Predict the structure.
Amino acid sequence: MTGNPAGHATLTRAPDGSYVVEADHRTRYAVTVVDGLLDRTFPPPDGGSLGDPLGRVPGGSVRRLVVVDRDVMRPYGRKIREFLDRHGIEYRLVKLPGGERSKSLKLVMRLCREFDDFGVPRRGEPVIVIGGGAILDMARMTSGIYRRGVPVIAWPVSLVGQIDAGLGVKTAIDAGGYKNRLGTYSPLERAVIDRRFLATLNDRRLSDGLAEILKVGVAVDETLFGSLRAHGRKVLHERFQGRTETGDRAASQILDAAIRGMLGELAPNLYEDDMARPVYLGHTWSPAVEMEALRRSRRWLPWERRPALLHGEAVALDMILSAGIALDRGAMDKAEYELVAETTDSLGLPLWDSLLDDADLLAAGLRDSTRHRGGRQLAPLPRGIGAVVFADDITASEVAHSVKRQRALGGRSVG
Ligand SMILES: NC(=O)c1ccc[n+]([C@@H]2O[C@H](COP(=O)([O-])OP(=O)(O)OC[C@H]3O[C@@H](n4cnc5c(N)ncnc54)[C@H](O)[C@@H]3O)[C@@H](O)[C@H]2O)c1
């Protein structure tokens, strides 16, 4: 499952006679950025190389189960089939509905049946998953528990997938009314990232992904924040496709900095041994807010017209809330706070949602994040721009004060 499971292992005997097993398990995977993967002119993937999007090895099997987000099949289905045919893959495509509701145990079980039916072996035939963050989370979790883990290659095709969900080792489904309640740490074999897929992503989804990039900028990379400020709107308008020279350069730089920044944060702490994570910025209250919004959403509307908040939108709201507390604590000044709010707004993200008026919801969200972080709040608050401080003592009245300021920003809200 991991690139190289070999590692150091010892068996010792403790003074009380207990056997003590200690073993390292090495994690190694590649994230490769490509351009125009599905184009006929794309250089033939080099079987055996780390970046081979099909995970082939010389003399190895070319059977692949390919799990594809149904909405992604519409624009890319024909090209995906042609690509697989062109490279001699014996494949079966499994089309599944995308979106948050796909992160369910029901879909995990359905996918397990598909794995059985195809006969996915423990090793040598990586499952290829093509989709947004939700399908990646669900299909990677299934692969992580199926036969205790079969290899997976991710082709994330949404912006959130390309700069976040497709990069780390975490997988999850929602359960019991909670977001990401069941999940695994299951390393990928490799991830292949092609911004050409973003051409068909809806505006709201692009903004949503930009929220996670903005989070990286505010939390750890002031230069990235500056790029978003200068070019974020253009890149959004051009859908990362580079319709102008400036837009092309900016899209490539922003995507690269976001991937580098995220991997730089993930790599030394892949299994979250250290719960003080700067990239938790925007993720303290947002899981509760996002799930509540989903509960209240009107299911009969197409998703783009639903008032439910998307993941990144909830992250943006949480980031402004956190920035407000940082401002009150003197960790950032008013100009920096306003800069973060303005940039958030310029990327088409909400600054306000009426769910923030629900103090009980926010308190429950903070409580749940505290449980998730081993009993400490460890809430990242921006320290200026490009750094964070961790707070462990945020009070309800501080939250209320920040919410009040956020309401006064008078920004766009969703729905
Ligand atoms: N595991 C992690 O580390 C991690 C990190 C961040 C986010 N996530 C999870 O990712 C999920 C959000 O992912 P998302 O924003 O990609 O949403 P999503 O996967 O729900 O996809 C949203 C919609 O966009 C469609 N879509 C995706 N890419 C497309 C494309 N290129 N063209 C046309 N349509 C496309 C999908 O079919 C779907 O209908 C959340 O569940 C979040 O919890 C996980």
Remarks:
- The chain has two domains: 26-200, 203-408.
- The CA atoms of residues 241 and 296 lie 35 Å apart.
- The mean pLDDT is 92.
